[in-house]
Amino acid sequence: MKDEHKLMIQTLMSRGLVGERELKDIYKTIQQRCEVRDSPTLNEFKNIINKKLREVSMEIRQKPDEDTGEQKYALVQTMESDLGKLTTDYLPQQLELFKKTVGLIMDSPEGMASSTDILNLKLERLTKQDAQETLNKFVKEQWLNQGEGYVWMTGRSIMELEMYLRKTYQPDKCWHCKDMVIKGQVCTQCEIKLHGYCLDRLFTDRRRVCPNCGQHWS
Ligand SMILES: [Zn+2]
Ligand SMILES: [Zn+2]
Fold first, then answer.
1. What is the pLDDT of residues 47-88, one digit of tens each?
2. Residue 100, class by beta-carbon neighbours within 10 Å (0-12 exposed, 13-18 middle, 19+ buried)?
3. Domain 83-160 belongs to what architecture?
4. Over the stretch 4-41, which tens digit does the pLDDT of each residue have?
5. What kind of fold does domain 173-218 have according to CATH?
6. 212: exposed, middle or buried (Cβ count in 10 Å: 0-12, 13-18, 19+)
7. CATH 3.90.1150.220 is held by the domain 3-77
8. How far is the CA of 67 from the centre of ligand 2 (A)?
9. Which residues, by Cβ under 5 Å, contact ligand 1, an ion?
10. How far apart are CA 199 and CA 178, in angstroms?
């Protein structure tokens, strides 16, 4: 493997989740530093690395961010990852918290769990304060997002756990793009679910009506 490939892999490993614009800058820097003469596009570069990563069952994957729609990139395992092997630097009780949090998220129609509910999960060997610290660590390492009293999954955890999520929960499909949607918006009338960014695209004429049932979208 060439230096530029290693550097890209290391960067993705340490960053967890990187947006497209940022990744383009990182790629430019790598090209300069490693004096890459032939310059494949970012996509070609990604494919070259993925070919090399195949033997270690890893892959660079991309997926639109469920909030903004911006492409996000992460290095993930291609073998089915169960939650117990998410990363090696968590204790079993911390991974149990993550698993229960994912369960709460997947059981909620809009794909978000309340922080209070998570902290009230009674887990062995994990005080409320431990739970809060663990949650913060998952957010810092870009496995979870947190805001306004809610917690939801990042592209990193969705890409890493896609097979597990599909098998365990049968996640919803976005009405518009047909891709899996975890955090999204639900029509209160006909209950279709869409990514926030897909809904924004459909609302460009400022008429906030459901694309399926035509009722006002509240
Ligand atoms: Zn969508
Ligand atoms: Zn509707």
1. 999 999 999 999 999 999 999 999 999 999 888 766 656 666
2. middle
3. Orthogonal Bundle (1.10)
4. 999 999 999 999 999 999 999 999 999 999 988 888 99
5. Herpes Virus-1 (3.30.40)
6. middle
7. yes
8. 20
9. 174, 176-177, 195, 198
10. 13
CA Rg, the chain, in Å? 19
Name the residue with tokens 């209950």. Answer: 191
How far apart CA 111 and CA 185 sit, in angstroms, is: 9
Distance 164 CA to ligand 1 centre (A): 20
* Residue 12 pLDDT: 96
- CATH 1.10.10.10 intervals, the chain: 83-160
**Cα 116 to middle of ligand 2, angstroms:** 30
Residue extent(s) of CATH 3.90.1150.220 domains in the chain: 3-77
Give the distance (Å) from ligand 1 centre to CA of residue 92: 34
CATH 3.30.40.10 in the chain is located at: 173-218
pLDDT tens column, 118-165: 999 989 999 999 999 999 999 999 999 999 999 999 999 999 999 899
pLDDT in tens, 88-125: 678 999 999 999 999 999 999 999 999 999 999 989 99
What value does the mean pLDDT take over residues 198-218?
Answer: 87
